[in-house]
Amino acid sequence: MCFVLMALVALGVSCRRAQDRTDPTADEEKPVPGTTQSAVPMRVPKRHRPTPERCTDLPLRVATDASCSDDKDCAGREPKCVGGRCTVARCREDGDCLKGQMCQCGTAYAQSQNARPQHCLPAGCRTDADCGPSGYCSPTLDLECGSYRGISGWYCHGPRDACVDDEDCVSAQPGSEPRQGYCAYSLVAGRFVCAFAACAG
């Protein structure tokens, strides 16, 4: 009886170890079916930020939907009540944003009518230099909504990335036409991965 129990325990350990070897991304985002999520050779991304930018393409202030009678009625960056409507200041440069953010200028990387240009966005980097030697700081679309909201943040490319540009993300499921995806940063996986999700509305 003891021999049987020991054999079963050994078999369980063996199966668990085999699973660990064949599923190295168990704690990361699961690959999209029909695509490869293994690392790709690093190259210069088509979109990256070698130097800081200063936004000059849009007005500094923008009106919001909130009504007001005084500046104290408004929220946001440098709120002011103008003509009964709250207005807030947009950023002009990275220094206008909090740590861990950068200033997204108006038209340079807009990919959607819903994009919010000249706003502070989450950022793991502000320029390529923040990503180390031969590093690149690139924009990412939302992993779940794609281009619906435009650029959602900026992050460093790394050796574990599954893609560098959108062109790396093409599905190849049997019996269907190839589908173009996009290269987006996954906060869960900590790397750029191929995504095919989209939002509409």
Q: What topology emerges from the helices and strands here?
A:
Blueprint: H1 2-22, E1 61-67, E2 80-82, E3 85-89, E4 101-104, E5 119-122, E6 137-142, E7 146-156, E8 170-171, E9 179-180, E10 182-186, E11 191-195
Order the strands across the largest sheet as they lie in space: 1-3-2
Instruction: Give the helices and strands as they follow along the chain.
Output: HEEEEEEEEEEE
> The biggest beta sheet, please?
3 strands, antiparallel
Number of strands: 11
pLDDT < 50 runs, ≥5 residues = 1-36
- What is the assembly state of the chains in this entry? single chain
Backbone CA Rg: 23 Å
**Average pLDDT:** 76
Structural class assignment: mainly beta
Name the beta content range.
25-35%
Helix content: 10-25%
Shape: globular
Query: Helix tally?
Result: 1
Tell me the span between the first and last alpha carbons: 64 Å
